[in-house]
Design a protein that fits this description.
By secondary structure, the chain is mainly β. It has three domains: 2-192, Immunoglobulins (Immunoglobulin-like); 204-635, 6 Propeller (Neuraminidase); 655-689, no CATH class. The protein contains two helices and 50 strands. Strands 3, 4, 5, 7, 9, 10, 14, 15 and 16 form a nine-stranded mixed sheet that branches. 53% of the residues are buried.
């Protein structure tokens, strides 16, 4: 065993410091005043005073490496070092447990690197690596010309322990060309939030199959490195056996995770609705290692040969307690066997084109209700977490194109969308709709209520924000499409941006420039699409913080390069962008590859109503880089409970998350499985506090 001295020499069994193998073929150097290392587990023993991250460790490719001492001369003629990921000022959940630092260059100019983390007086941590292998661009399979360091578990835990809810940690990369000189990179800052993010998300992983582009819904509990991503829809158990569909893409999830509506396609991910059927799934068997079960589609015909239940397609949202759900009339059709939807049996009763169908807690059709004018096509609903209202989109028009099965007017391609809300009065009864944000020609769509209100809060305070997508009005092709060019379309639009507005009529929408990855005045096309909230309200630096996920085609450092010359946003066949295209066609190799990204929203009561409250985004590290990933939707518990048996209006007593009410203020207490306890001030706090 060795200690690395300030001059860079390794001294066997030196005192007062000691070192121990790091479990990865390298060394952990323990300096005086640093907590002890358990040689069996690499865990740091508790020490008095503030947590510290002080010392040096080596990566797997650099066993026994040393690095020039501070103050070494710069390397003459060496190329500049540039950190390309993560973005400067990124804020990370402290239980993410994985982070990749990526930089350029790779090559003989540098023998080895030191990745340095500094936040005086508690953090001065260094990881040595030789960058033995350069990173690979997953899109093309080509070397990217750069280096990557995935932080080991010890480094992550030390940095989090010393800097949770603290000041920024400066990150630099130093390189040495000869073991004597050292050149430094640009500096970036990373920040660690105060509270763990403990939810589970479900997203569509689009893959290539023998039938073309398919895919399934996969789940992952955030931060759980012992849990691999799990395919939850391939083996769904239906009335007539397993799912048997090559593509399960569009999905809607209850906020407690107990129920999901899934739309399945028996061929590929073409986005017309002609061969798509929906099913209502019981997700609770997942808690015991089982597969989701289809609930009965009471009152529906056989399903027309479609996968599982064959409910007519559209956009769906579930009551927060999964006691009912509503679906847009996506085709549209009005009754069983209606023209325009020849392969499905349709609804068992009339559903107006300007309305939503209503389904009960067992997946049975229970009626419909109309909103707006008879010519409207309401779509893309989202139910608030307190159960009292639904926000939805009313477009000025929907796409019309000639597909293989005839003329399509499906509501997944809409233009000129405005946002509206409708109150929910309980027992399947909805009130009168009101406009929230009228369109001036731009397209506003995919709205989502923020989770900062629950039934346990006094007065059922409504959510504070609505998150949504916007595409600026581009009149070069009119309201619809022209020869496959659809600049205003809601579907996978390259120019989509994330927007936020207060949950009140006539509020000014805020462009989330930092999360969008480019200024509103000079936007870059990154396909920032389908944003959804993680269902937690937390505290960071004394302010409220919310988290959101979305899909994006931005580059992931050097690992996924989506914006090389010739790459473009691809669309399925039989879409307005590719009308009449042949089914079962694989993606073009030059297609950009969307991935799931996450960003925070941090706000205080005193900040300006027009200030951008977002932070820069980071790549969610557990996903498959070789697939196209979309639409992460969250639950607040890994193992969802069964939903209530019936819908009685606002949700019944609900457990509180961190900093929520408990005790006399909320007899339901703190949510199980979230490592919370009820404090003396009747708030749910972390057991670590």
């Amino acid at each position: 065993m060795y200690t690395v001295l300030p001059d860079g020499n390794r001294v066997p069994n030196a005192e007062p410091g000691n070192s121990t193998p790091d479990g990865a073929g390298g060394l952990i150097i323990v300096t005086p005043g640093m907590a002890n290392v358990d040689s069996g587990t690499n865990a740091m023993a508790p020490s008095s005073g503030p947590a510290k991250a002080m010392g040096t460790t080596t990566a797997q490719d650099c066993s026994g490496c040393v690095f020039p001492a501070p103050g070494a001369p710069s390397c003459n003629g060496a190329p500049p070092i540039n950190i390309v990921y993560p973005a400067d000022s990124v804020l990370l959940p402290p239980n993410m447990n994985v982070l990749s630092i990526q930089w350029t260059p790779f090559g003989s100019a540098y023998q080895r690197f030191s990745v340095d983390f500094s936040a005086p007086p508690n953090t001065d941590w260094h990881v040595l690596t030789s960058c033995a292998n350069q990173t690979t661009d997953m899109q093309a399979g080509n070397p990217s010309g750069g280096c990557e360091l995935a932080l080991d578990a010890l480094t992550w835990s030390k940095l989090v322990a010393a800097n949770r809810d603290g000041p920024p940690v400066a990150v630099t990369v130093r390189g040495t060309a000869d073991g004597q000189c050292a050149s430094s990179s640009n500096k970036i800052n990373i920040n660690f939030a105060k509270e763990d993010l403990i939810g589970t998300y479900y997203y569509w992983k689009s893959t290539i199959t023998s039938l073309g582009v398919g895919g399934q819904i996969w789940m992952k509990t955030f931060g759980d490195l012992n849990m691999s991503e799990q395919d939850v829809t391939t083996n769904v158990q239906g009335a007539n056996g397993s799912l048997g569909a090559s593509c399960n893409g569009c999905h809607a999830l209850s906020r407690d995770g107990s129920r999901m509506v899934i739309y399945s396609d028996d061929s590929d991910s073409d986005d017309e609705y002609g061969d798509m059927g929906g099913s209502f799934l019981d997700m609770t068997p997942l808690a015991n290692g089982g597969d989701p079960m289809e609930l009965g589609d009471a009152g529906l015909p056989s399903g027309g040969g479609l996968p599982l239940g064959g409910q007519p397609p559209g956009f769906t949202t579930l009551h927060p307690n999964a006691t009912s759900y509503i679906t847009s009339n996506g085709v549209p059709q009005t009754a069983s066997g209606a023209p325009g939807y020849p392969t499905n049996s349709g609804y068992p009763a009339t559903v107006p084109a300007n309305g939503f169908s209503i389904w009960d807690s067992q997946g049975g059709f229970s009626g419909s209700f109309a909103v707006g004018n008879s010519s409207d096509r309401p779509t893309m609903p989202d139910w608030s977490i307190d159960g009292t209202s639904v926000v939805y989109v009313v477009p000025s028009s929907v796409a019309s194109w000639t597909a293989l099965i005839g003329t399509r007017t499906d509501d997944d391609h809409v233009f000129g969308g405005g946002l509206y809300t409708v109150p929910y009065n309980g027992n399947g009864m909805f009130g009168m709709p009101t406009p929230l944000l009228k369109s001036g020609g731009e397209n506003n769509y995919y709205p989502s209520y923020s989770p900062d209100s629950t039934a346990s809060e006094a007065g059922l305070k409504p959510p504070s924000f609505i998150l949504f997508n916007r595409v600026a009005n581009n009149s070069s092709a009119g309201a619809n499409c022209n020869n496959g060019f659809c600049p205003n379309d809601s579907f996978s639009n390259p120019d989509a941006r994330l927007m936020l507005m207060a949950n009140s009529a006539n509020s000014t929408p805020i462009d989330l420039e930092k999360a969008n990855g480019s200024p509103a005045a000079s936007p870059f096309s990154l396909s920032n699409s389908y944003p959804r909230w993680a269902p937690f309200v937390q505290v960071y630096h004394g302010n409220k913080i919310l988290w959101l996920t979305f899909s994006s085609t931005r580059d992931y450092g050097l690992s996924i390069l989506n914006h090389k010359t010739g790459m473009y946003q691809c669309y399925p066949d039989d879409a307005p962008q590719r009308p009449g295209g042949t089914h079962a066609t694989a993606f073009d190799p030059t297609c950009q590859q969307p991935q799931i990204w996450m960003a925070p929203i941090v706000f205080s009561e005193s900040q300006s109503a027009t200030a951008d409250p977002s932070g820069v985004a980071f790549w969610v590290p557990y996903q498959d880089m070789a697939t196209h990933n979309h639409t992460a939707q969250w639950t607040w518990t890994p193992n969802p409970p069964p939903p209530p048996a019936q819908d009685g209006g606002p949700p019944p007593c609900t457990c509180s998350h961190v900093y929520g009410a408990c005790g006399a203020a909320n007899p339901c207490g703190c949510c199980n499985g979230e490592q919370l306890k009820c404090s003396g001030s009747s708030q749910c706090i972390s057991v670590a506090n």
